[in-house]
Description:
Elements: E1 2-9, H1 13-22, E2 26-32, H2 36-46, E3 47-51, E4 54-58, E5 61-63, E6 73-78, H3 85-95, E7 98-103, H4 110-117, E8 122-127, E9 131-133, E10 138-141, E11 147-150, H5 158-167, E12 173-175, H6 179-200, H7 204-207, H8 211-230, E13 237-238, E14 241-242, H9 243-246, H10 250-264, H11 270-276, H12 287-296, H13 302-315, H14 324-333
Parallel strand pairs: 1-2, 1-6, 2-5, 3-10, 6-7, 7-8, 11-12
Antiparallel strand pairs: 3-4, 8-11, 9-10, 13-14
Helix pairs in contact: 3-4, 6-8, 6-11, 6-13, 8-14, 12-13
Amino acid sequence: MSEAEILVVGGGAIGGATAALLAGRVRRVAVLDANREHAARMRDPGLLLDDLGTERRVRLEAYADPAEPDSPFDFALVTVKAPHLEAALAPLVERELARTYVSLGNGLVQERVARLVGEENLIVGTVEWGATNLGPGHLARTTRAPFVVGEPDGSVRERTHRLAAALGTAFEVHLTRNVRGQVWTKLLVNSTFSGLGAVSGLLYREVVASRAGLEAALAVWREGYEVGKAQELRLERFVGVPAEELAAGGRRAEEAVREVMRHVGATKASMLQDLERGLKTEVDVINGGVVEKAREHGVPAPLNEHVLRLVHRMEEGADSPSPEKLRELASLAT
């Protein structure tokens, strides 16, 4: 057991599943989630977690009000979605409720988190596994893959090892000295497979099951890959697959996609889950993040721009997810 005390900020699919899997393996784990019904059910009768097909209940220390937790935590794992970062973190910083914050959210949110909590108090991480929110008090982990964590300045400190040891009681964890490259690689995964999953209404593996979906996915990946290279980033592996393999084109890229799907193919895009609930998505920091950096560096990103427009229309109720959108994007790519 790790002696770390951990607060999970955001008890949705990733955060809630993380807390449940750490329960009993670290000294203390608590969840802070704004949904009062969800927090109450996590306490009693306990979170119902479908962990890769095996269900169990886990009673968790859970709160809906940031004023309720008492003593400070060693780490606050920030899994709350981008639109809610400021509202979620400001009260915690004011109360000095965590010594170190760990940004685990999707998209380019790390600088925002750093401004809120202080750069010296931040570790950055990515989550390579997937989970689904099935309603208040009910979550499912759908794939098994690592956490990757690293210091923003590329160092490895005692606190980084301590965080990795705590997460490592329940998950595979990788330490990186290149967290900026790691974040961009994860952004490629989200902008490609989550973006296309959102506009099509499909799981990751279903997106690439058709020729049109595969061509669209490889084109969106190549586009984001070129934007990363324009920033002179050294891109990292995702589930063991080098980022450049998916940008290579031809059979080599198709084989790389098949290997990625072997690990995360059952993932349902978080943006699709948001659309289904009528919520605002994180597309502005995912595909929009690619578009923003593309403009800064003079690199074209028409496919990410199109996904951004489509998701915005869906958020407004003017369009809806459909597999036909994959043929639309594949046509645009050619």
